[in-house]
Structure formats: C-alpha cells, structure tokens
Amino acid sequence: DSRIEAIESQINLAETIINDSNKKLEALEKKITQIKASNRDVPPDLYKKVDSESQQVKVQSEVMGNHKKRRDKIDVQFGDYIERFKVLKTEQKARREKLARERGY
Questions:
Q1: Quick check: 1 pLDDT over 80?
Q2: How far, in Å, CA of 51 to CA of 47, rounded?
C-alpha cells in the first residue's frame, strides 16, 4: 500500500513537471511568434530553451509511464494482499473502538 502511494507521488511529480514545461513551451513559442512578427531575428538561445523544455516533457513522460507500469505491476502482484490488509486493519480498528467503548474510554 505504501509502495503504491510512493509511486503515485512520483507520478504526480512527473505530471507537475510536464505541466510546468508545457506552460513554459507555450510562453516561449508565443515569444518567438512575437519576435518573428516584428521582423526581428529570434535569438538562438530561445530555440535552445524550446528544445530543452521539449526534452524535459519527453523524459518526464517516459518516467511517468515507467512509474505507472511499476504501479500496475505491484497492484496486480500484491492487490489481493493489499485488500486483505486493509480489511484486517479496519477490523482491528473496529475491535479497538468497541473495546474502548466497553471499558468506558
């Protein structure tokens, strides 16, 4: 269960990085369009930034995909155990609460 939660956190982080990079790409492309519209030369570093952010999206998409595969594999491998563990924890909590009520806590 905690393994899956850790992987979910990694997936969320990758999604955040991808979203941030996509926003940066949009801003860079808008800037390039504005520069071209004013008949100026686009600085080469802007194209490098676009390439860098595009690469970031690609890498993080692969990372996210790998994390999802790992999560799914763990879920298939341990899914029944995880469900049984959750049931046992719920039953244990209910027993403790019942015992506490009986003892007047």
A1: no
A2: 6
Q: What does each C-alpha distance from 61 to 8, 25, 53, 104 come to in angstroms? A: 14, 15, 12, 54
Q: What is the DSSP string of 1-29?
A: -HHHHHHHHHHHHHHHHHHHHHHHHHHHH
What pLDDT does 63 receive?
Answer: 97
Residue 3: pLDDT over 90? no
Enclosing domain of residue 47: 2-103
Segment 80-105, tens digit of pLDDT: 887 888 899 999 999 999 999 999 87
Whole-angstrom CA distances from 39 to 34, 35, 36, 42, 49 are 9, 7, 5, 9, 21
Per the structure, the count of domains in the chain is 1
